[in-house]
Structure formats: C-alpha cells, structure tokens
Amino acid sequence: MIGRLNHVAIVVPDLAAASAMYRNALGAEVSAPQDLPEHGVTVIFVILPNSKIELLHPLGDNSPIAAYLERHRDGGMHHICYEVDDILAARDQLISQGARVLGDGVPKNGAHGKPVLFLHPKDFAGTLIELEQV
After folding, report:
1. Is 111 within 8 Å of 54 (Cβ atoms)?
2. Which of 3, 80, 99, 103 has the lowest tally of Cβ within 10 angstroms?
3. One of 54, 70, 83, 130 is an active-site residue; which one?
4. Could you tell me if 82 and 2 are in contact, meaning their C-beta atoms sit under 8 angstroms apart?
5. 86-95: pLDDT as tens digits
6. Is 63 helix (H, G, I), strand (E, B) or coil?
7. What sign for the dihedral angle of Cα 119, 124, 127, 129?
8. CA torsion sign, 14 to 108 to 28 to 76?
9. What's the number of domains the chain is made of?
10. Sequence-ordered list of residues with C-beta below 8 angstroms from that of 92, at least 6 positions apart, any chain
C-alpha cells in the first residue's frame, strides 16, 4: 500500500534558525516558508536527493504542534510521511484492519496541495504517520 518516503517532519522552535542551519551548515536546498492555516503550521522543506525534511513551526496559538513544543522545547521529530496512490482506499483498508485515522477521516490538502491523512501513533509503534496521495 505505501509507496516511497515523502518526508520526515521535525518541529522546530525557531524556523529561521533551523532553515539557516540546514542551508548553511549542511549545504541543503531550502524552500521558502509556507503558512498552512488549515493545519496550524508554517513549513519549510529541506530538499534531499531522495526525500525531504519538513521543518514545522506553530502558526497561531491554536496550532496542534504548540503543545509539542511545550513538552519538547528544543523541538524534535514529529511524523513520517509515506506516499499512497489512493488515499481513500488506503484509509478504508487501514480502518478495516483496526487503525485509527485522526480527525474526521476526511483528507485535507497538505503543503504540496495533495490530500493527506494522519494515523494514530499508538497504532504504529509510537510514530505519527502521515499519508499523502501522489
């Protein structure tokens, strides 16, 4: 069902500093910041030859990752995103196997303008999983 790794998301307390570190210290190509109000985050993508790193920062006081930063002040890994061909078929198959989809189960557009869903970390060895339709 899952395809390639799309990205690994890291919550950061300072988006500009994290972006500069990847760009300057590691020589990575780094995208411009992108606000995603529907998800309550601002993102920057670090472009790698085979995948991406998504740097996440809270957008507004009601951001779902604000609580993450309260518990992990230095930031840290937040989720892993896998690609799927058909997000609705993947969702239905996962639910039939007992996996929990977060939210209302209706895909929302992610940072790439494609439908995404999140799966409960307790169902996947403590890791929050994002599925993105490609």
Report:
1. yes
2. 103
3. 130
4. yes
5. 999 999 999 9
6. coil
7. negative
8. positive
9. 1
10. none
Query: Residue 125 has which token pair?
Result: 């060895």
- Whole-model pTM: value is 0.94
What is the H or E stretch that residue 79 is in?
strand 76-84
Measured from the Cβ of residue 98, the count of other Cβ atoms closer than 10 Å reads 7
User: How does DSSP classify residue 121?
Assistant: G
Per the annotation, the verdict on 130 as an active-site residue is yes
Q: Tell me: the pLDDT tens digits for 16-65? A: 999 999 999 999 999 999 999 989 999 999 999 999 999 999 998 889 99
Q: Which domain holds residue 30?
A: 5-133
d(CA 9, CA 1): 21
CATH code for position 113: 3.10.180.10
